Please model this.
Amino acid sequence: MTDDRLAVRRTLKLFVGGEFPRSESGRTYPVVTPTGATVAQASRASRKDLRDAVRAARGAWAGWAARTPYNRGQILYRVAELMESRRSQFESELVAGGSSEREAEVEVSTAVDRWVWYAGWADKLGHVLGTQNSVAGPYFAFTIPESIGVVGLLAPDDPPLLGLVSRLAPALVCGNTVVAVVGGRWPLSAVSLAEVLATSDVPGGVVNLLTGRAAELAPWLAGHEEVDALDVGGADVELSRKVAFLGADHVLRVINPGRGECDWLAESAQSVAALTAFCEMKSVWHPMGT
Amino acid sequence: MTLSPTTPGGEHPVHPVLAYSTSLESTDIVRLDQLHERGLFIGGAFVAPRSGRFSVTINPATAQPLVSYAEAGAADVDAAVAAARTAYESGWRDLPGKERAKYLYRIARLMQERARELAVLETLDNGKPIRESRDIDVPLAVAHFFHYAGWADKLDHAFAGRTARPVGVAAQIIPWNFPLMMAAWKLAPALATGNTCVLKPAETTPLSALLLAEIIQEADLPPGVVNIVTGGGATGAALVTHPDVDKVAFTGSTSVGKEIQRVLAGKDRPTRLTLELGGKAANIVYDDAALDQAVEGIVNGIWFNQGHVCCAGSRLLVQESVADEVLDRLKVRLSTLRVGDPLDKNTDLGAINSAEQLERITELVDAGVAEGAEIYQPECALPEAGYWFPPTVFSNVQQTHRIAREEIFGPVLSVLTFRTPEEAVAKANNTRYGLSAGVWTEKGSKILWTTQRLRAGVVWANTFNRFDPASPFGGYRESGFGREGGRHGLESYLELEPFPSPSPPPSPLPSPSPAGLAGGSGS
Model:
């Protein structure tokens, strides 16, 4: 970059159905660095945007869930590849958001590796979570993990990239589609992740990312009948309670990875338990006979 | 009671020589007087309720009272939870799994020894045919204890890479349709995993749980490990909201399940929850099904246990090309179903469990007629006393009809038709529920294709209403969450944590980042 050239700034948009709309509400909010500089305006998603995102996620679900696990695994691994190739961008955004260079480097590396770890699970979930059921009768019976459907995700604020990736990746492995609300102070990383996802092989609508205010959007997400599960990893206690209460109207599965206590950099932040929470178990019986 | 010497359908008079005579199970084995005002089972002993209140449980087949049972109030629930907490912390939690296992084996054996007594008592209190309580409810309850006994000392093998520890005190609320079996489904996995329990049986069917308490006492289970508090909705509410409960397991209606979910959302102590709620299962019959077998499956699907089954196959989806034939065969088969005294070993359909449930069934059936569905009921003489409803089939049912959407929880089948497999799946999944489903076809690939697309926790292919402790059971969507049975059933009662690392993990970036390959660090 030469000194006399004016940088081209990026417009931060929502990511819905594989496209990048602005909020239909026309609202934005400033993205402010820890030093108080406003670096961008992010789209502030509305209830209507959220409904559009849920519709997109529902539309994409059957196709994504029907992919072979091998295929889903490759597609998720491809996300890691693309993130790695853009790691300088992710790192510089994290640094701008207040991370040290080393912290940024570690966060991006861990996020990339997390995609790799979860991608490899796609065709092993059935082995590890499934069972052949030894019933007392002439039946062949088995239990297999399946997707729950549309998963809402209140992304952890911090760390801005790794928190989101740590919850998004396990939700996708078994075939759910996701509407994630990125309500944190630093939405740049999520928007960049959306741009990675858009150029990856993840089909449009499988991941939908809404920047905005979690407290404003989460109740609508929890109460939406087409949302089958809600991960409250990024919600405080009060918001978690509120969404659990509202979601009870349609028996929403509320997934709580441990609120603010989770060390997202730790190995333990990626787990079979996380995958299990995003699965339904289906038991199938068939008689044996001639 | 005796039935007239005709077939149940009443169409073909039977020659007097061939007249039907009942084959009644004796009730002598049941000592109702000993269960009368038996009290609550708290801390290993039967104690009088502090509430001072008693209710009467009736025999739904006669509408006559059986015995009075205690109605636990808040203070009683408090005492039960305290007993469970003490038992948990003072030994049960830390008892080696192999010792917990032996207690469960012991309970299973004692249940087998008193199987007849349990079966007769269950039939008296619930109204279900003795054939079912004897051959299904009691053996399956026993099997649950056997199955989970064997897990108690094998938890380290159940979840690779994770350590398992118990949750604590479990509050367990069970319904009236399979009182003993539901008690076993709740208690066995909870105990195997080292939790202690407070179990609340349903208000219309408290007796088999009290007999189970006697068995637990006889097994010398440490006091307070299992506590049984009888009572109604208020008792259940006191239990669910109790601040010292770590885990709630509820089986019952979707509306109550939602209420429990709401209540727990606001509770200070994080409380684990599993819900096993209602259903409106589709039973899909393709035109290439073995129709005689399918008809038997349809009958078993909806008329087992008077249709008081959350996973009942209450929506029959039959392919249009065979719909008339299936319906005709079904009507013929219906005429041979014997409705009557639950203690008669030949009875197929027993009594409706309560006046309240009979009213709900009647209301929905009336709605079915009013909305334009075509009703069929075989002629059958219903006993005069007690609560009864004839087996009922609705045809020409539309998806919008209440009888196609709402859980009736009675012996009422709604028949809808479809043309293509895609339509069958779409209609099957067109419900807020997702507990079970059935599919009937002789074509293997079509079974798997359909099974994969049905949004239900249990899919029976060319069979229906099969249960086993080794087979996880539970719902999708508004049929609840969590699984009961098998290895998955353990999970509801365990905290599973990753194995602690043997040594501190190495620093993620001990050397310069390989990111250089990707074109610089951007700094």
